[in-house]
């Protein structure tokens, strides 16, 4: 639970740094991913502090929804699926520009990895819960 919380906290701090310090406004799909990630910091933090092994019931749905959105966003960004909407436009907020790479990876890819990691870290609690 602690590892999942640290991963959610890192992702949230990264998103806040990009938005507040770097001044980069997120695109629509990045906003949706933030909506799924930000509550995970609170849910997983309280669960880790209290030793609540049943918090996966609240956290896993959020991380799964976030993973679906981040996966969809990543597939659009890579060009593997057509974009009925343009998540990162030239004239609006973009998460795909050269300045929006972290360690050489686009932000949606990192978001997908974070959500997948949180989901995988929560799976052992599903099996152990009554």
Write up this protein.
The protein has about 130 residues and is mainly alpha-helical. The chain has a single domain, classed as DsbB-like (Bromodomain-like, Up-down Bundle). About 70% of the residues lie in helices and about 5% in strands. The protein has 4 helices and 2 strands; from the N terminus they run αααββα. It has a two-stranded antiparallel sheet with strand order 1-2. A hairpin with a 2-residue loop joins strand 1 (about 100) and strand 2. Helix 1 (about 1-20) runs antiparallel to helix 2 (about 30-50), helix 2 (about 30-50) runs antiparallel to helix 3 and helix 3 (about 55-80) packs antiparallel against helix 4. It starts with a helix and ends with a helix. The mean pLDDT is about 85.
List key phrases describing it.
mainly alpha, two-stranded antiparallel sheet, 68% helix, 130 residues, single chain, 3% strand
């Amino acid at each position: 639970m602690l590892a999942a919380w640290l991963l959610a906290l890192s992702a949230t701090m990264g998103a806040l740094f990009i938005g507040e310090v770097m001044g980069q406004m997120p695109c629509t799909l990045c906003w949706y991913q933030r909506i799924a990630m930000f509550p995970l910091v609170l849910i997983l933090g309280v669960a880790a502090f209290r030793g609540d092994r049943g918090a996966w019931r609240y956290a896993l749905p959020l991380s799964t929804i976030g993973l679906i959105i981040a996966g969809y966003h990543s597939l659009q960004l890579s060009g593997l699926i057509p974009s009925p909407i343009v998540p990162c436009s030239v004239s609006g907020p973009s998460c795909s520009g050269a300045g929006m790479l972290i360690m050489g990876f686009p932000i949606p890819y990192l978001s997908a990895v974070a959500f997948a990691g949180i989901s995988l870290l929560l799976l052992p609690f599903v099996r152990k819960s009554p």
